[in-house]
Amino acid sequence: MRHLLSTRDLPREDAIRLLDIAEDMADVQDREVKKLPTLRGKTVVNLFFEDSTRTRISFEAAAKRLSADVINFSAKGSSVSKGESLKDTAQTLQAMGADAVVIRHGSSGAPQTLATSGWIDAGIVNAGDGTHEHPTQALLDAFTMRRRLHGTASRGKDLDGVSVAIVGDIVHSRVARSNVWLLRTLGAHVTLVAPPTLLPVDVSGWPATVGYDLDAAIAAGPDVVMMLRIQAERMNAAFFPNTREYSRRWGLDEERLGRLRADSIVMHPGPMNRGLEISAAAADSPRSTVREQVANGVSVRMAALYLLLSGANTEQVRPGGVR
Questions:
Q1: Residue 270 is labelled as binding a ligand
Q2: What sign for the dihedral angle of Cα 288, 103, 158, 65?
Q3: How far is CA 18 from the centre of its chain?
Q4: Which pathway does the record list (predicted)?
Q5: Are 105 and 176 found together in one domain?
Q6: pTM of the predicted model over 0.85
Q7: Side-chain half-sphere of 29: how many Cα atoms within 13 Å?
Q8: How many domains does the chain have?
Q9: Do 108 and 185 sit in the same domain of this protein?
Q10: Is 174 annotated for ligand binding?
Q11: HSE of 102 in the Cβ direction (CA atoms, 13 Å)?
Q12: Is 177 assigned to a binding site?
């Protein structure tokens, strides 16, 4: 794997392979010594033009557990704030010998530009670009679903027939886009649920059905309900009357949680607006996977960096067979 930019064109075999390697990485995290020597001598740069906590720390932990050297770059306080272009920043990282660049950028397509421009030879991982995609978030979500549904026998499994309702601010969500494409590839059925104003103008090309009623979606008995954060920082207009109305019609509260199937799970990519798109009772319930998603993110990002930088021999990451 040369780059990881999108889930839209990620082949099913590659997606399952990455999830299987993430299982190996998760097994390593249960050992007393959690580090692998796999990427010793490699340099991973976290190039973040947007604020982030979970994704940046997760990638940093993943790289360090693979013994890579990590450079954290923030646009604030750097030459970017003085007007330096993406090209000049990339060429600076090239001169420093970066082997992989994990980039989060406010402009959709920035990772693709970095990967195809010739400015830098490093492998590129998209950590979120504008409202376009966030592939490793979708992969960790699929990994979490697979583990909850298949348990310890999840290796090699897809999500064939699993029903997933993605609820909330679809129009601004790169997480929703990456999940729609990846879940389709893995065989799941996706329903998008949101007020019309929070859906893209045209979703006819998306492999998902569309609904506007959260109660109807819950009555259909989904295996997974994924709540999305209301991204107020991306809104320059009134997309719904007020927060109370949104919570009443599209929020997952305790009453709606009780109407879910007993084996349904609740997901959220974080950070959560408690009391808006999800109640504290739903966020903290036993069926919530929010904390699992954070932990699983490290394993999935270890797998992504491993595939990007070290080759295809997965035997070297299996517990008991680590070199």
A1: yes
A2: negative
A3: 13
A4: Pyrimidine metabolism; UMP biosynthesis via de novo pathway; (S)-dihydroorotate from bicarbonate: step 2/3
A5: no
A6: yes
A7: 19
A8: 2
A9: no
A10: yes
A11: 29
A12: no
